[in-house]
């Protein structure tokens, strides 16, 4: 047997990410969770026990699903690594506070089984598992996922109609009077925690400062949203909303910092990160404007998840130049 074969015979390749700076995978997951805690407090203060119920059921469902599925598949149980907990928290953040408990369970189970374990478990998923679960719920029980319907039973000091629904139904004039600072501060209906735009942004910047995510994907995402929305707005400002509206409304902020940056379903190459993020922003606006569903963020990220393996093949040119033989 060749010496090289003996040397590498027992080499084991673990799941993504493969390049790290001394931080463990579980450490990164719990840093994500810490970054979301201010928005958790905001959600509970806004929606009370309904928000606490959605968050608790979602986390419990995700962790229980992970445990049961790993046992059934005879895989090592790894619910302590923080990934299932984070998935449950993210699912809760993008569901309305009034969503029934059984729908949360279905969404989390589908995310863990189809989105994660069938693709090989941690690090093997091509698509973001939580977004696959959300899309399944969206197409199966659309009324329960409607953010406007989900807020009608609450006494709020702002409109209970989802701004993107207003834009889609009535045009740019109907949203031109909205106070963007209020929207940025979280005074809009939406997901249980995702509407806390400022706190999500602060959490995202915390992740960048801690080195858990790169700035390239979220910043290029926001740039993609701004650039694409600007093209439509400059073409017809009476019909299309301005770029700032598209940035502060809906799920753009949580999409840019917490979903598009998923280790397993986004590029590791620096140039590819910029293209991936910009593409997410581009398709977010296109889905919002051109499709019947204004929630373009999640569909845009899932679409770019398909392309990221190709983007990761982009490599800088090798220094030097090729010389012809004499």
Task: Summarize the structure in words.
By secondary structure, the chain is mostly helical. It has one domain: Ammonium transporter fold (Orthogonal Bundle), CATH 1.10.3430. The protein contains 15 helices and no strands. The chain is globular. The N terminus is likely disordered.
Task: Please provide a brief summary of the model.
This protein is mostly helical and 326 residues long. Helices cover 60% and strands 0% of the residues. The chain is globular and about 60 Å long.
The rounded distance between the terminal residues' Cα atoms is 40 Å
Number of helices: 15
Low-confidence stretches are: 1-9, 11-15
What is the general shape?
globular
List the secondary-structure elements in sequence, H or E.
HHHHHHHHHHHHHHH
Share of helix, binned: 55-70%
Number of strands: 0
**Mean pLDDT, rounded to whole units?**
88
Q: Cα-atom Rg, whole angstroms?
A: 21 Å
Number of domains: 1
CATH topological fold name: Ammonium transporter fold
Write down the CATH class: Mainly Alpha
> Largest sheet, described in full?
none
Named CATH architecture:
Orthogonal Bundle
Structural class: mainly alpha
In terms of DSSP E residues, the strand content is under 5%
Descriptors for this entry?
mainly alpha, 15 helices, disordered N terminus
Question: How is the secondary structure organized here?
Answer:
Elements: H1 3-8, H2 25-47, H3 49-72, H4 83-93, H5 101-117, H6 129-140, H7 142-145, H8 163-170, H9 180-184, H10 197-209, H11 216-235, H12 243-248, H13 252-259, H14 270-290, H15 296-311
């Amino acid at each position: 047997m060749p010496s090289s074969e003996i040397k590498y015979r027992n080499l084991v390749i673990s799941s993504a990410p493969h390049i790290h700076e001394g931080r463990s995978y579980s450490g990164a997951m719990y840093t994500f969770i810490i970054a979301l805690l201010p928005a958790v407090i905001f959600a509970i203060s806004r929606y009370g026990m309904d928000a606490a119920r959605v968050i608790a059921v979602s986390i419990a469902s995700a962790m229980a699903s992970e445990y049961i599925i790993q046992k059934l598949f005879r895989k090592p149980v790894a619910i302590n690594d923080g990934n299932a907990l984070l998935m449950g928290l993210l699912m809760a953040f993008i569901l309305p506070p009034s969503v029934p408990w059984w729908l949360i369970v279905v969404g989390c189970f589908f995310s863990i089984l189809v989105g994660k374990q069938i693709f090989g478990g941690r690090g093997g998923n091509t698509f973001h598992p939580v977004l696959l679960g959300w899309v399944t719920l969206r197409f199966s029980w659309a009324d329960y996922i409607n953010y406007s319907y989900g807020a009608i039973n609450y006494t709020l000091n702002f409109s209970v109609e989802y701004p993107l629904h207003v834009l889609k139904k009535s045009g740019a004039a109907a949203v031109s009077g909205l106070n963007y600072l209020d929207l940025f501060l979280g005074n809009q209906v939406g997901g249980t925690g995702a509407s806390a735009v400022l706190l999500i942004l602060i959490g995202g910047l915390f992740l960048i400062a801690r080195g858990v995510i790169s700035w390239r994907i979220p910043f290029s995402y926001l740039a993609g949203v701004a650039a694409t929305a600007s093209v439509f707005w400059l073409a017809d400002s009476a019909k299309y909303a301005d770029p700032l509206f598209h940035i502060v409304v809906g799920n753009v902020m949580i999409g840019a910092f917490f979903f598009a940056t998923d280790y397993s379903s986004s590029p590791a190459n620096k140039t590819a990160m910029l293209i991936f993020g910009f593409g997410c922003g581009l398709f977010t606006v296109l889905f919002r404007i051109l499709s019947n569903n204004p929630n373009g963020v999640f569909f845009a990220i899932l679409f770019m998840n398909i392309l990221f393996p190709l983007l990761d093949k982009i490599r800088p040119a090798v220094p030097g130049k090729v010389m012809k033989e004499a």
